[in-house]
Structures are given as C-alpha cells and as structure tokens.
Amino acid sequence: MAPRIARRARALLLALLVLPAAAPPARAQAPPGAPAPKSAARELRQALAAATARFEALDPAGVLAHVSDQYRNGPITKASLREHLLAMFALYDTVRARIRVDEVRMVDGAAWVYSTGAISGRLRGVGAWTTVMSWEREPEVARREGAAWRLVGPSP
C-alpha cells in the first residue's frame, strides 16, 4: 500500500506544479456509491477488529481468513500478502494496528471502506518502535463471501 500512497503523493505534487497559479481550486468529488446500511458498516467494523486482533497476535492465517482468495493490489495477491506478513512478523516481535473506519459506501454490492490508520512494530532484538506505514482516508474494497466480509483489494 505504501507504493500506492507514494504514487498519489507524486501525482498530487505534479498536479500542483503543472496547474496554473490562477486556476480555481478543484471541487471535491463525492465518493462513489451510497452510504452503507448501518448493519453492513457495523459488520465491517467487527471484521476489521477481528482481523486487527489476529494481526497483533502475529497470526498470519488469522489475518488471511479476512482476505479473499481473489485479492489483488497490483502484483500483490493473497499468497504474496502471506509472504509480506511472515516477513513483517519475523522483523517485529510486537505489532500494533490503529485503524479507524471513516466511511463505508456501497458500490455495485461491494463495500468501499475508507479508513485512516497506522501500523507500527517493535524491532526484534532492538526493541525500538517504528512506524511501518500510515494512511489517511484510503479506500479498500470488501465483498461478502458467504456469511463473511473479505477484503478484495483497493478501489479502482
């Protein structure tokens, strides 16, 4: 997710440099879809809390239970996400995820979950805490698979 944020930051910087100084400020676009029903938003928050608990327990299988087999984020799939988790759990002896759901919107049966958060870890053997990544109001898409909501990737 960090490369995606870096691309957005570069694109924003480029846009600011290219836009004429006299151009009026752009109007904020309304997010796609409609607000999610309260029950769906509550279920998604509960799924996020469960996935966060498994992440902080250093349980890759528990985290991946909340990820769809169809997960895609550029070249990253569920299998490569597992490798990333294993590497992170080898590097850090303790991890924390502080994630706030800002908004949930429904688009063609999928939930677009906008969140703000940060992930930090304590380096194994060193004891120093570092911020692994942080984001602000980034959308991710979840779909219902059977009775559970599972992450399928970032919004298009």
Tell me about this structure.
35% of the residues lie in helices and 38% in strands. By secondary structure, it is α+β, with helices and mostly antiparallel strands. The strands form 2 sheets. Strands 1-4-5-6-7 form a 5-stranded antiparallel sheet. Strands 2-3 form a two-stranded antiparallel ribbon. The longest helix is centred in the first third of the chain and has 19 residues, at 38-56.
List the helices and strands and how they pair.
Blueprint lengths: L1 H17 L15 E2 L2 H19 L3 H5 L7 E2 L2 E2 H14 E16 L2 E14 L5 E17 L2 E7 L2
Antiparallel strand pairs: 1-4, 2-3, 4-5, 5-6, 6-7
The counted number of beta strands is 7
- Rounded to the nearest angstrom, the distance between the terminal CA atoms is 13 Å
What's the CATH topology name? Answer: Nuclear Transport Factor 2, Chain: A
Computed over alpha carbons, the radius of gyration is 17 Å
Largest sheet descriptor: 5 strands, antiparallel
**Topology as H/E string?**
HEHHEEHEEEE
Please tell me what the overall shape is. Answer: globular
Secondary-structure arrangement, i.e. CATH architecture? Roll
How many distinct folded domains?
1
Can you tell me the residue ranges where pLDDT is under 50 for at least 5 consecutive residues?
Answer: 4-27
* Arithmetic mean pLDDT: 86
- Structure classification: alpha+beta
Number of H- or I-type helical stretches: 4
Query: Spatial order of the strands in the main sheet?
Result: 1-4-5-6-7
What portion of the residues fall into strands of 2 or more residues? 35-45%
What is the helical fraction, as a range of percent? 25-40%
CATH class: Alpha Beta
